[in-house]
Batch of 3 targets.
Target 1
Amino acid sequence: MRIIKYLFLLLLLSLVALTIFAATQKGEFTIERSCIINSPRATVFSYVSDSKNWKSWNSWAVDDSLISITQYKNAPTEKGFQLSWDGNKGNGDLENIINKLNESITQKINFNGNSSEATMHFKDTLKGTKITWKATVKLGFVNKIITTFNGAFENEITSMFEKSLANLDRKLDFEVNHYSVKLDGVTIKPACFYLEQTFTSEFTKVRKNAEIVFNKITKFCKQNKIIISGKPFIIYHNYDTESPYTKISICIPIKQEIFITEGSEIMSRKIISYPVVKTTLTGDYTHTEKALEKANNFIKEKRYIKNTLYSHFEVFVIDKSKTNSPSKWITEIYIPIHPKGISKSLTTVTETVQDSVQ
């Protein structure tokens, strides 16, 4: 009986010693892994920064078919966005704390009682976009004990980084590089009423600004009970890729004419029916130039005369709000032209509708 007591006491002392030893360990480690992805930096950043895509490449989600993900607070690409998950390997949550456009993303992550701050840096290289993913992990007490003896948890996180970057490379290689451009030819763009916000934007920020303004106009329509009657679109008033800036109008079509106070950021306008050359891009927006090139070559070959009131506009038939797979996005591109054989300008293409919404 006395031997059992001694053994129990020895075991207890060993546990106490182990607890004290583990508690005095640093319980922190840093992991850094890199990967070069054969896609443009803006595309890679856009895909990774949109946390809706997290489950398509992060190995915690990819390897767990039963994982449950909850998204809440702010838009997926914004600072302050948060999501949480619960799966076979535990649960956790993440929050975007810094987003530097096309440069870096910093997140706070809590998982299974541990915490970390992770940053992904994006850099152009000759072979594509280099992502450098670095995280400092602070362990909870249980994992501190485990890692003290065999480094198992550190190895698990390192493996997650490597597998996730490989997933991202495969995903983007397919999603970005699988596309098609169809030349639809000459058609008539029907007349419509629409709401717009017009401003000058950096080319690199057009997609981000469009997403923000589309949401703003959609909210405006809901607040004022305005019926949306079509797909959102962007009008490019000028398009010179040698310049860092372009003048654009972010637009959403509406069912009927309305009246908005002059000077408002959001204006109501009307497109008059006129001829256009149409192309359809199925795939990532990085291939827009190829669609424009095909349309412009057609215009040159047929000797059509462009209507120079603006460059072109893009209609988002299927976009990232419908699917997080860029290969499935469908964008219709319209370049306005004059009727064949007529050299003088068409009459006005847009009309301003004034007064106010009550």
Target 2
Amino acid sequence: MRRPRPGAVTLGAVHGTALLLGLAGLAATLWHGVDEPRNALAFGALVTLGELVRWGAVPTPPDEPEEREPAPLAAAGALAYALLGASAGTETTHDVLQIVAVVTAAGLAGIVPHIALGRDPRPDHLARRVLTVGFAALCFQPLYNTGTAVTHLGQGPQYALFLLLLLVLTALCDAVLAALLLRARTGFPYGPLLRDELRALLGIGSAVCATGAVMALGVAAAGLWALPVLAVPPLLTQVSFQRYAAVRTINRQTIASLARATEIAGCTPPGHAHRVAALSAAVGRELGLSGAELTVLEHAALMHDIGQLSLVDPVAGGATALLPAEEQRRIALLGGEVVRRTGVPGAVAVVVERQADPYREQPLPARIVRAVNAYDDLAGDGPATAALDALERLRLGTARDYHPDVVECLARVLARGGAAGVTSAVPG
């Protein structure tokens, strides 16, 4: 009997916990009725609107992680409902399970049109939202509804600091969940993923938390009429972010098309650039690269062989790793010059230019591209023995050509099954 992958178990556990919590909230709300229906309807509509606007974004390929926060308006609205203590000066009485029920129902309502159009949305972001909103509501609502928070903190600066502490704890909870889901879905190391999520708290994460708190305080003072006004900034931010994501996706597709030029010209085997880019990104994550560093690494790996287009006589099989060192360096310099003329950031050109230098003189991305490219040149689509021989040759070359840490990290990635979309011939 085949054992399930650990990632599948983790995804099932997180999704199952969120499902049980959502069902418990819906059942309790249906049984006891809805407290303050106007508040529930207003915040539910806000979350649904955020989910509906989200579907205008560029879809995420199945083998890649989703955007960090695909629906900031929905996240801010859900968080605001979890932290809502009063409405127009009147104390509220809704509890944790009602908050979970409203967020779950609104999230599902926003997904239904997407499913009707034949798309297959991932449940990750909704599971995260249900769990993090439930956490925030559990920390806030019992203290507020019993009067403990107001009695001990009042309505002044201490109350604001209390909300700030809850926001920080909620953001940390969301970062842990997001990294856990990405680890389960992609197989990347948990440490760098969590570090990425924590860094993001200074960006979109802090904006969502601040907007949610401002919405809760605004409704407490001015009533539900404050919601439409306070929803405009995150709505515009969400639309702008989607446009930025679309431009970034088009940019990546353009770079991938340029990388395929060497395959179309017969300079490199089909799929070589994609395999090198996927494995390089996996090795980079293993070594702690993140954010912009990973983007530079991936783009450089896609375009690492583009210098071969300048050669009069093509390299046999496109395997530059078998060439003399001086010839490798000449092709790398030609590639860097081509990359600079395409308008790609200069950091990508630097990696391409320096991929053939001795590893002690290279930046880390160039070390990764060189080792991964050599592995793919030597192993190709051969059997497991060819892959093992390629790794052994890389280990023998660690005195000058390949950094030992990069080679061992590549071996670990291959032993786990390689990267998404890359089939490894190395047994685990």
Target 3
Amino acid sequence: MSIAQNLLKIKSSLPENVTLVAVSKTKPIPDLMKAYDAGQRIFGENKIQEMAEKWEAMPKDIEWHMIGHVQTNKVKFMAPFVSLIHGVDSLKLLQEINKQAQKNNRIIDCLLQIYIAKEENKFGLDEEELNSLLASAAFQEMKNIRIVGLMGMATFTDNQNQIRKEFTHLKSIFYKLAPLPKTISMGMSGDYQLAIECGSTMVRIGSRIFGGR
């Protein structure tokens, strides 16, 4: 099937309240344009430089989501245009995003990444770290970022029960936040249907749209 057909098939299977982020990392611009021409307007990249190059070359009604691990020294390159930063996992990173957003006279939306997997190489805050970050004076002072929700990545495993447990754990943390933010980003090509069952409102899908890398 073509990129457009893949995209439309996935979109037709998603509930109305679920946002699709087309994960376009490493894919060439002509592939992204096929998805764009089929109506997709939200793309996810994991390298800031690549995302900036695509942003410059492509139509300006696209929302660019940074879905990879973010290095503080690279924030300035995406601050002028990024729509949502998914993997915010420290106060230090948040402060840098706030600083660069201020320079660009913007308020940048962010998702706080929660560590839910049983894998050492995944990033994120635990519940205690999340609560102390949100309660900190430094966080209260930031005027150029907006926390719109949480994000988490499940363990890379075939064990559906474990994945369900991790997604449910993220949702329980999400529901404790007040006032309740709007986005809970969990689920990728392999587990997005389960993530939606567990309450996800944003899924990140790449290979099922664009084919393998």
